[in-house]
Amino acid sequence: MAFGWIDEQADARRRAGLVRTLRPRPADTPLLDLASNDYLGLARHPEVTEAAAAAARTWGGGSTGSRLVTGTTELHTELERELADFCGFEAALVFSSGYAANLAAVTALAPHGSLIVSDAGNHASLIDGCRLARATTQVVAHADPEAVRKALGTHAGEAVLVSDTVFSVDGDAAPLAQFAAACREHGAGLVVDDAHGLGVLGPGGRGAPHAAGLAGADDVVVTATLSKSLGSQGGAVLGPARVIEHLINAARTFIFDTGLAPAAAGAALAALRLLRREPERAARARTVATELHARLTAAGLEAVRPDAAVVSVRAPSPESAVRWAADCRAAGLAVGCFRPPSVPDGISRLRLTARADLSGAQIERAVRVIGETRP
């Protein structure tokens, strides 16, 4: 029977407690949200939503084509210019998603005969970029500059190190300065995904590369998403102008994909301007994460110390993690639930988002619910 193997895999997932289901959310919900990636609380900010509506009224519901045909509007170029300036890079290029941006950067910057050194904790989009690239990929120990040096030392040609800046599972930060030093010793490029750093780390939320003193470097390329701190949708690559020009001509997820919808571009631009005006939002997100971690560990839970706005709490098993998240939801709290294969170490977790707009009372309520429902 065609696709008969699907039933076998479905049975295996059920036995392992790894079945995933869609849960449509209503427009208004009484749940306290610690599950989304809306780090700065901007997805529903009136300025952001009105900018999205205004862009749709002006430019239409969609971009109508690929960026190289009809999909580039004046709004896209304005967003790219301001995003590059904010993050401290020479140029930026906007994509329809952060996933597409990562595929573009990795595949276009790792040609045949080159070496990709990939951190073991990288996001799936970076891993898929490595798989699609024509380079040889060597996976190295998580957040280990010496492992990077050793890998780069085995290759005499072009090479690039690929890493998240903040890893999405535990929220720990990569040692970017040490990574850059290792790359420079071997003449390698550095490509980092700042999806969880933009808007949270660096002065005024300018990102982890800016905080590490790497912004604007000619050997550093940064990818980012517009769907987390900026409360919109889409992705971007930032770096030297010659790298961005190369992506326009060589990145398949740019050339052949429909451009980002104008509404998303307008929302992201409004959020970026709001962050410029209210830089304290970034510091508040970090403060909330620190407080969440302190309260959770004080309650006897195994929580990982956050470097940005992600706080993870270890669960005994995939099944218990699912049940724990469901019990939290029943008690009025939405939390993320990460299980294999989404976690590189096989350990299931609750994943909490430390949003800048959470109050002290909401933090206290979240910790109480998580503690009372622990398996």
Radius of gyration, in Å, reads 21 Å
- Supply the number of helical segments: 14
What coarse outline follows from CA principal-axis ratios?
globular
Task: Summarize model confidence as the mean pLDDT.
Answer: 96
Q: How many DSSP-defined strands?
A: 11
State the helical fraction. 40-55%
Q: Say what oligomer this is.
A: single chain
> What structural category do the secondary elements indicate?
alpha/beta
Strand order of the largest sheet: 2-8-7-6-5-3-4
Low-confidence stretches: none
N-end to C-end Cα span: 41 Å
Described by strand count, sense and barrel closure, the largest sheet is:
7 strands, mixed
Strand content: 5-15%
H and E string: HEHHEHEHEHEHEHEEHHHHEHEEH
Describe this structure in words.
The strands form 2 sheets. A 7-stranded mixed sheet has the order 2-8-7-6-5-3-4, sandwiched between helices. The protein has a 4-stranded mixed sheet with strand order 1-10-11-9. It is globular and about 55 Å long. It is α/β, with parallel strands linked by helices and 375 residues long. The two termini are 41 Å apart. Strand 3 (115-119), helix 5 and strand 4 form a beta-alpha-beta unit. The chain has helices at 4-16, 46-59, 74-87, 98-108, 124-132, 145-152, 176-185, 208-211, 241-250, 252-255, 262-277, 280-298, 318-330, 360-372, and strands at residues 32-34, 91-95, 115-119, 136-140, 159-164, 189-193, 220-225, 235-239, 310-314, 333-338, 349-353.
